[in-house]
Amino acid sequence: MKPVIALVGRPNVGKSTLFNRLTKSRDAIVADFAGLTRDRHYGEGRQSGREFIAIDTGGFEPDCTAGIFKEMAKQTRQAVAEADAVIFVVDARNGLSAQDHDIARYLRTANKKVVLAANKAEGMQEGPQLAEFYELGIGEPVAISAAHGQGIRSLVELALDDFPEPEEDEDDTPLEDRPIRLAVCGRPNVGKSTLINTWLGEERLVAFDMPGTTRDAISVPLERDGKKYELIDTAGLRRKGKVFEAIEKFSVVKTLQAISDANVVLLLVDATQGVTEQDAHIAGFVLESGRAVVIAINKWDAVDSYQRELVMRSIEHRLAFLKFAPLLHISAIKRQGLGPLWKSLGEAWASATRKMPTPVLTRLLAEAVQFQQPKRAGAFRPKLRYAHQGGQNPPVIVIHGNSLEHVSDSYKRFLESRFREHFRLVGTPLRIEMKSSQNPFTDKS
Questions:
Q1: Angle CA 158–161–164, to nearest 5
Q2: Which of 84, 82, 68, 79 lies closest to 34 in space, CA to CA?
Q3: What SS3 state is found at 86?
Q4: What is the pLDDT of residues 19-29, one digit of tens each?
Q5: Containing H/E element for 270?
Q6: What span, in angstroms and rounded, lies between the C-alpha atoms of 382 and 406?
Q7: pTM for the whole structure
């Protein structure tokens, strides 16, 4: 599983700026005043070929017992509990504060790997200004500048130093013959446990633990119609002795890690509550990860026609980027709609692993260009010459030609729709990559 790094520190030390730098995004709002971040933010990061999950937190006041700061402290403790490593961010410009000492005292008792990052340290790498931070008892401070990207690589490498590199998949079994890793995701009380128990009861299978991670991720084998599945559980089915009571029952990190490890994701939506921001966040992570996905609206039998219409509108509005995903209505407790659900899950996996021959792709590309050419960019019009498959799960189509950097996103969507229609791809993202040929006469005078 991907390691998890939590960013912790007092207000306005640059945690959100560092989060945006690690995730190469602008997901965390940044401004020059304290207290802007209050909830935990999650994002995917990559540094030096290593992938990880980053958590941004609000300003941490461990000893606060009232008001919004108490809730922010609770959020930070949750992030520390979920993390494999903690980056303690301090302000190198303003120096050490009493609040830094309080945070360091808490982190020393958290039994986590802690890396001390002295932010806003432009030009201080060799200076004596950082010496005072040794007082915290955390170790040697790493001078960084989140705003300018200085020292970030060394910081991440130090944080991930104790975690093994992900092993390459050496299984020689063809992709389509391996067990399908299926993750059931959704908000608390959406019916994940009920659905899982219904599946296990129908198949008369015994669940077993597969240890190896600190969070005891559970893998449950399923077999249906001769096809083997490996259910990655995000419903909290952990051994009672391993449940940490201080952690909330629903862990976003657990869900994100399950999505990363899965082949197919079943996104459960509660018909009584509609699509929430949390549902959209999970769906966005599924799309970024390139996983095949099926959307199931649970508790469909518990709502009237008016509520059903509201749910469908909320899906059209908030999950518009998953138009390719099959949408089903089920009732886990009454076992309604589970047959079509299994069929859609199988079709999504088949689409994700579909083989697309190069001659067929090239012919489809030529037909698409003949039907509608890409727009001219200045004196040149992009020329799309041939296409081939560049990967599976998700399917990747690589198109070669000239001046392809000028192909618009709308034209890529046009090509995607043509490929999807011909190969009947459902439930899987389709990625199109453009590779322009080098002009051999460019360097000749």
A1: 155
A2: 68
A3: strand
A4: 888 888 665 44
A5: strand 264-270
A6: 7
A7: 0.72
